[in-house]
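Task: sequence design from structure.
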């Protein structure tokens, strides 16, 4: 059994003169949640379409569960993959139950599983209502149910969590984490960096068809060395010049301050001396607020896509 559910090897794709993928080699391990991040037009959807065999690559290879794929992906491999795209693939006039029943019939899946999925995704009470009356979040939950009918080993979500209400987003997130616990692999393409940070074991940054970097979110964030204590102190705006001079002499290189109406803020680098220095300031000024500021994936995204 291969360690990887999915591997692409130097995958390239051109549409006429436009080189959309320029040699992507990406691996998703079993039991791993991999995030695919990148600006609009980076090539994320094209990559996913090649992985599941909707598009053929111009060059390179896709390996699924250890086996090299040719032009057509075999039916038994297809059955191990569930995919959710941004656009709906549901029958709007049918209700949720009949939608799933239809696809369950095609895939030889039991009606018990249909009922279980509707319950897990909190769609039981609406199951007999036409899908056209559903909210965006409910439709998305149903699309995921559809993708999970055949209990796939690899679930691919392309922009599947965008613009959802918090309840639907939470149901989907919890389900993704549960699937991971069962040893399934999940590839998520998303613009929601906070979500990628919370969910993904590793994230891959794609820009202009190149794979820029792949690593754990924490490794990317740590690499930015953004780790500050943000302190706010009260200060009557009487002698700003004197205060500025005082703060300039206090701050280390890389630290900053900002004067506000009745207060000032400063950002101290978190190191072994930070608490001692914060206490010293607190003897001089009245402390209003204290926060820890760390890099997030938004900062990493900006850095990577410069
Ligand atoms: N069938 C096609 N024919 C021609 N060009 C295409 C085709 N499909 C995609 N492209 C182009 O390939 C580039 C990458 O598109 P893709 O949809 O893969 O990006 P993406 O990273 O998924 O973007 P987004 O985040 O906006 O969904 C875009 O410039 C797009 O116009």
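Answer:
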């Amino acid at each position: 059994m291969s360690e990887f559910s999915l591997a692409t090897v130097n995958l390239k794709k051109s549409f006429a003169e436009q080189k959309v993928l320029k040699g992507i080699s990406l691996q998703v391990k079993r039991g791993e949640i991999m995030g695919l991040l990148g600006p609009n037009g980076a090539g994320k959807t094209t990559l996913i379409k090649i992985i599941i065999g909707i598009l053929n690559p111009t060059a390179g290879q896709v390996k699924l569960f250890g086996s090299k794929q040719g032009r057509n992906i075999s039916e038994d491999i297809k059955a191990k993959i569930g995919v959710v795209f941004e656009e709906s693939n549901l029958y709007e006039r049918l209700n949720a139950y009949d939608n799933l029943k239809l696809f369950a019939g095609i895939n030889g899946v039991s009606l018990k599983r249909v009922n279980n999925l509707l319950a897990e995704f909190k769609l039981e009470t609406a199951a007999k209502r036409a899908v056209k009356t559903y909210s965006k979040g409910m439709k998305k939950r149903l699309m995921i149910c559809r993708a999970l009918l055949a209990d796939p080993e690899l679930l691919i979500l392309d922009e599947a969590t965008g613009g959802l209400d918090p309840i639907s987003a939470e149901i989907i997130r919890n389900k993704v984490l549960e699937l991971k616990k069962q040893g399934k692999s999940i590839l998520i393409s998303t613009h929601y960096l906070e979500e990628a940070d919370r969910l993904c074991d590793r994230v891959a940054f794609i820009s202009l068809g190149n794979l820029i970097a792949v690593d754990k979110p924490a490794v990317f964030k740590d690499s930015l060395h953004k780790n500050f204590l943000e302190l706010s102190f009260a200060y009557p705006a009487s002698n700003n010049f004197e205060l500025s001079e005082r703060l300039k002499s206090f701050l280390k290189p890389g630290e900053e301050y900002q004067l506000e109406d009745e207060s000032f803020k400063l950002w101290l680098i978190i190191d072994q001396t930070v608490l001692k220095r914060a206490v010293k300031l607190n003897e001089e000024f009245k402390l209003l607020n204290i926060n820890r500021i760390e890099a997030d994936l938004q900062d990493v995204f900006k850095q990577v896509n410069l």
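The CA atoms of residues 88 and 143 lie 7 Å apart.
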